[in-house]
Amino acid sequence: MAIKEFSELIKKSQRTILLYPNFKSNISSNRDPNLRLVEAKGLAKAIDLEIVYAEIINVRTPKPSTLLGEGVVSTFTEIISLHQAELVIIDSSLTPIQQRNLEKAWKTKVIDRTGLILEIFGKRAQTAEGRLQVELAALMYQKSRLVRNWTHLERQRGGLGFIGGPGETQLEVDRRLISERIAKIKKELTQVVRTRQLHRKARKRIPYPIVALVGYTNAGKSTLFNSLANADVFAEDLLFATLDPTMRQVSLPSGREIILSDTVGFISELPTQLIAAFRATLEEVLEADVIIHVRDITHPETEHQKEDVLAILKQLEIEVDYNPNLIEALNKSDLLSSENFLNTQEQDKSHKVLLSALTGDGINNLLKVIETKLASSLKVFTFDIESSNGAALAWLYQHGEILERLDQEEKIYLKVRLSPANWSKYEKEYFKDKKSANFQEISLINEYE
Q1: Which of 219, 211, 269 is nearest to 240 (CA)?
Q2: Which of 160, 267, 412, 444 shows its CA 20 to 30 Å from the CA of 361?
Q3: Beta strands 411-418 and 401-407: pairing type?
């Protein structure tokens, strides 16, 4: 299924009714349903839907057939007709049966939260990789929701004029076409991952550490990215304004160069299909030397948003509980009252930085914390190198920070700050195929913490 065809399932400015089921049985959740409804409206706004009616529906016991009770379904049959709605969004997960039954009862298109987020991603993805990842996620989601929407896929089979064998039902044809398309996309994405790995290896030849921005959608990651990198990445007060990863080379105050990476925003109940499909994109976070968790400190549910982001990072197998290289950027300080600003300033300054990506306040403090985090992972080594060994000398200058140098007749003594990874590379490159007796040529004399 092409992205264009997927996105056309929902049209721009479609008259839409939005419902948020507030499950009374979910006593463990203390989130404000009104804020959840506001967030759902923001998601709909992201693809220019016209919300003509929105309501929170209290659900005591979800019905397996329709999720909502018969009375609610009947009531909204009239409301949908009254508002001439073309689409109903249920801001929760729907089973395929529930979705089909509601569409039949209301005689209109119905999608759930997962479908809405996939729709946004389908419209926003710009790169070939992003489009493939979205299409894969959409196909995996729709595979269990077949309602004979997929016959356009037969055009991708070569146009032979027929599909399937004798007696094959349309449902079987659709399922087979989706499975074939999924297999093809996975194969293409494998090549994308391979290419990305080659790019990453090329970057590793240059000693630029990676600093990745993560955070809840609309927390201000792209605005912070633009401020740090003097870039013009699309940044707007819009959910999922950034989908495709962006990387820029940035100079820290010390002159050290880093690679800054802006990533897709996270959200509560992010579809598992998207976490899996976008794993290749989020590999930049997995490889990052420092992770900056950008938070909207002014949001009423900023702590809940933090929990959602950390939960997704854990799914990506990133250590978050005791990660010394995780920084919290408490963004939008310009919107805080004087009292809240002072209270927030008192927080742990070694892991948290109060700032405003919009005004630039606190940016310098963030850069200092990044430098401190990067420096803490480095160690100082002392080398004595034969004066004739220019290759080893050049390598250390390129990959490390030269702290001291002493030139003598036959040897050059260096004190160099290196990451453990670069020391391993140096050892592998210049000690390989040498016997122990020859290690004096380029020897590690001492190590300082």
Answers
A1: 219
A2: 267
A3: antiparallel
Residue 386 corresponds to which amino acid? E
Reported as a single tens digit per residue, the pLDDT across 152-187 is 444 443 333 333 344 456 667 777 888 888 899 888
Give the pair of three-digit tokens for residue 147. Answer: 């309602």
- Sign of the torsion formed by the C-alpha atoms of 302, 240, 262 and 341: negative
**What distance in Å separates the CA atoms of residue 81 and residue 108, rounded to the nearest whole number?**
10
The pLDDT value recorded for residue 345 is 62
Domains and CATH numbers, the chain: 3-121 (3.40.50.11060), 146-202 (no CATH), 207-376 (3.40.50.300), 379-448 (3.30.70)
Arithmetic mean of pLDDT, 80-94: 93
- pLDDT, tens digit, 9 for 90 and up, residues 244-255: 567 888 888 888
Q: Please say whether the dihedral angle defined by the alpha carbons of residues 272, 278, 280 and 286, taken in this order, is positive or negative.
A: negative
What is the model's pLDDT at position 203?
57
| Residue 60 near residue 95 (C-beta atoms within 8 A) | no
CB of 448 within 8 A of CB of 382? yes
Residue 144 is classified by DSSP as G
From CA 73, how far away is CA 60, in angstroms rounded?
A: 14
Decide: helix, strand or coil at residue 242: coil
The whole-model pTM stands at 0.71
> What is the spatial distance between Cα 43 and Cα 8, in angstroms, rounded to a whole number?
17
How is residue 254 written in tokens? Answer: 């010390």
- Contact (CB, 8 A) for 121 and 46: no
Q: How many CB atoms lie within 10 A of CB 314?
A: 12
Q: Which residues pair with 208 in a beta bridge?
A: none
Handedness of CA 268, 272, 276, 278 (dihedral sign): negative
Rounded Cα distance, 354 and 347, in Å: 9
Note the pLDDT tens digit of each residue in 328-383.
Answer: 999 999 888 766 665 666 665 668 899 999 999 999 999 999 988 887 777 788 88
- Any idea which residue has 């702590």 for tokens? 303
pLDDT in tens, 392-418: 888 888 777 788 888 888 888 888 887
Pairwise CA distance, residues 376 & 84, whole Å: 61
- Residue identified by tokens 């194969």 is 187
Smallest Cα–Cα separation from 350: which of 364, 370, 332?
370
CA dihedral 64→65→71→74, nearest 10 degrees, is 160
Of the pLDDT bands very low, low, confident and very high (cuts 50, 70, 90), residue 75 is very high
**Per-position DSSP letters for 346-373, written without gaps between them:** TS-TTTEEE--TTT-TTHHHHHHHHHHH
